[in-house]
Design brief:
The complex is a heterodimer.
Chain A (H helix, E strand, L loop, with lengths): L1 H15 L3 H13 L4 H21 L5 H24 L9 E7 L6 H12 L3 E9 L1 H11 L3 E5 L7 H12 L7 E5 L5 H7 L3 E2 L3 H16 L1
Parallel strand pairs in A: 1-2, 1-3, 3-4, 4-5
Helix pairs in contact in A: 1-2, 1-3, 1-4, 2-4, 3-4, 4-5, 5-9, 6-7
Chain B lengths: L2 H10 L5 H20 L13 H18 L1 E3 L4 E3 L3 H9 L4 E4 L6 E4 L11 E3 L5 E2 L1 H12 L6 E3 L3 E2 L1 E2 L2 E2 L5 H20 L7 E2 L24 E4 L5 E2 L1 H12 L4 E5 L2 E2 L6 H17 L4 E4 L2 E2 L8 H17 L4 E7 L6 H15 L4 E7 L10 H14 L4 H15 L14 H4 E2 L4 E2 L1 H16 L6
Parallel strand pairs in B: 1-13, 5-7, 5-19, 6-8, 7-11, 12-14, 14-16, 15-17, 16-18, 18-19
Antiparallel strand pairs in B: 1-2, 3-4, 9-10, 20-21
The chains are: A alpha/beta, B alpha/beta.
Amino acid sequence: MSNESEIFQKLAQSIWDFDPDAAAAAAKEALAAGIAPARAVEEGFSPAIRELGDKFDRMEVFLPELVMAAGAMKAGVNVFEEAMKKAGGSLANKGVVVLGTVEGDIHDIGKTIVGAMLSSAGYKVVDLGVEISVPRFLEAADEAKADIIAASALLSTTMLRQKDLVEFLTSRGKKEKYIVIVGGAPVTQEWADKIGADAYARDAQQAIKVLDGLMATRRA
Amino acid sequence: MDLSLILKRSELGALTTGDEFLLKSVSMNTMRLAREAKLKFDPQILVNQDDEAADRLFQAGRQLLLETGLYCTSSRRVIRFSERELDERLKCLPGQVTVGQGKELHTVRHRGVEDSAFPTIFGGPFNCDTDEATFVKFNEAYAREPLIDILFFPGYLKELDGILIRPGSGLSTRAAILYGRYAREAVMRAGRPDMPIAGHAVMALNEIACSSEEWGLRSTDPRAMVLISELQVDDVTLTRLVYYKSIGAPIYMSFTPLIGGYGGGPEGTAITAVASVIASTLLGGDFVHIGPQHIKLRVQTNQHSLWLSSIVNQAIARNSQMIITTSHTTAGRPGSLQFALEFSALAIASVISGSNQSGPRPAEPLGNNQNSPLMCRLFAEVGRATTRIDRAKANEIVLALYQEYKDHLDLATSPRGKTFNELYDLNTLEPSEEHYATYQEARAKLLALGLPLD
């Protein structure tokens, strides 16, 4: 038991140190010790990254720490995923999110925060980056076998691409396959309703809450 | 510094990824420089009183730019500057730039800390969404305000003929042309045909289509372009820069240092802000607009933004001849008293520290035309009154104002306000009695706090 505790501590410490190499090493140690990957994530990585998320909310840590911690966690989770894949399974998650900022919009900070916080909340996030075309969102969602497409727009002029995304999914008969969530400074619940998006989130915390609800309904 | 050198470096500089630049270069260097500069945010001192701290900040910002350079997100290359290039550029700045024509010729000046000279007022819709039916009247009402020196960002046309405008499209080019025509028509109708118009027609390259000496934005009008937070530029900005410099237009560079972002807390973000001001000037910016943004609150009137604006403006004012203006975005919306109290706090903190003024605007407008020329009048009056007080008094007033609104900065619950169409009579372009009463109420509150308004 004490060995397990030490490993959980190492997993957590790698997040607090923002150290991807240490996270991967701790993940390998957890596997060697026979700890189930889901448990290692839940009891090792998650508490540490949740704590960082809370600190970010209180402005006690800032974006660099959040991004580096998410990077460290990703390195560790990759080790678990590889191991599960070899064993013919996959690592449990709350859902797979394909995330990006829409075409014509180069703002990445809000989207990056949402990605980091969703990862910390147990979602598998595929961050496509910025200036993502509508077809690319769908292509990536199909490839990743995603549950959710999250599209960010920081400009009132680029919000239009969120509407295009919903229209495109509808035209391809994929609208019901994916939960579409939209966000960004000029985006509102009214806009989300108007374009037929499934959800709107003002910030990362709200995105987690809304998606937890929608995923629970979907999986029920 | 020659623009062709910058363009060359944007093609030949060291290749790196955006993440590496932001995390390893900007964040790491900023953290170190913030420790060395020994800057400390104090919630009781929102208007900086410490000249040495401002000077240390300037040196830290200068050092950050020398160490990181500027990242071109399009070519993924780093544009670096030498110490000599930086110092030579700063040494030969004129400290003033003339805009507009004829009777509306206006000189925007570098301001000092506690300067008795009035700030330049860049006032207008400030890029809030507008519609074709209201655009001219909306801007005419601003141009009728005599304290506004430069009509500021006449507003985005979000749709034409019932169709939402896609950036970069033919329709958006048409919107840019109409923007130029309508903005010029608005100042003509206000009896100020040569009034300078600071323009930013659409968020795409075809923005330049609003240019015309005859009917649109002229080469004597300031033209805006944007640095991306933190210390990043892209091909769109570089292209606009090349074009607008070639026609001799005054260059209005803007950026939003993001508190809580890659610069870290307010102290680190102040350093990235100074670095960005210097970078903007090296790119050829005649004046530089700082929008002190906050990653969580998304408004510029929180206590961190107030402090950042004050100390960054002082750092620039004391150590260079660069011309700064500060943008003002608020949680409260026009029509509410809170809107006025918020922009007044930031205007006082900025103007006393050496800034000119741009804005104000709600950070999250709810629908088209959500801004008010009357509130811009008050904004200008506050700036003028600030030239008659000192930093200690400014801090006292800013703290008192902040206490009034600090618990109402959440955009989800902040006052929803009204639109120009609701606040004004569209036939006479006069504010409603109710709106005028809000203006009077705000003035009375500011006078009671000791701000010597005319």
